[in-house]
Amino acid sequence: MADTDIPEVRKLPENKENSFRKRCDDIQCAFFSHFSKAPDFFARAPGRVNLIGEHIDYCGYGVLPMAIEQDILVGVSISDKPNLHLRNTDESFSAFSCPVDDYTIDKSKPEWQHYFLCGFRGIVEHMKISSPCGMKVVLDGTIPPSSGLSSSSALVCCAALATLHANKLTLSKTELAEVCAKCERYIGTEGGGMDQSISFLAKAGTAKYIKFNPLRAVDVTLPDGAVFVIASSLVEANKAATAHFNTRVVECRLATQVMAHVKLLPWREFRTLRQLQQRLNATLPDMVALTVEWLHEGSYTKQEICKLLEVTAEELNEASMSPNTLHGSIEQ
Predict the structure, then answer these.
(1) Do β-strands 83-88 and 134-141 pair in parallel, antiparallel, or remain unpaired?
(2) Could you say which of 36, 143, 183, 214 would form a disulfide bridge with 151 (CB–CB 3.0 to 4.6 Å)?
(3) Active-site annotation holder among 25, 102, 195, 224
């Protein structure tokens, strides 16, 4: 995909029996109910499933995800008043309103609107929009929440795309993916960029081999007739609401920094294992061998990490930790 490729603007299917058209019509009905008008446009971002490469994107390594049919779909109208009004077709999610320049993204108790605000803020800051337009939004989601299918990242991506279009601006899909990978961190999640990348770069009938720094993607054609069955355990795991996800990110970061220190390198400069591999000019088998040699099995305490890196706990917090991983032991 060319870096200049921008998201396509399409007309709605004319056939009212088309399933996507029906869903848009349902959102339009909800929009009339909430705002007494029709939306000006719709924006969509799909969820994803990862085929190969679990939890290695934030280590700097490539992954092989594909998009799924389930998605986040919003109807949006542009407002002449500087406010955001967010509504959800699922009434279990509360309505939300705020000024475009006065809101808080709550990291301690994230709710659905905070993910929308991540995407909104990301575009406003990246594009340096001094006076973003107000928006009225009705959201409909078919991705099971907190199921590991990237409902939260799809919401961030959809919000960013809607904000961009409402303010009459454009970015390439690659740029959008990079912006959304960064702005989802406003809510505290330290992901590696896979979810946002596949949401924008996906193509029907293919998976994507995605590499990072810089972001690039290659089509991987799926076999004819291949069927992927995705099963949900119905156990919800909100990665922004707990420290579980970020703990794994920090564990990998600390392992990298300990190994960099062993090699007498400036360990604070290293955030991912891929960075260290490149600096050492090592192969993947080399890195496996070095990991076995330099790291012991089992857990590390924070005190042990501090001793290995020759820093205080406060210095380690500043250099390596995220806010919700400041306490407890670290698993290898």
Answers:
(1) parallel
(2) 143
(3) 195
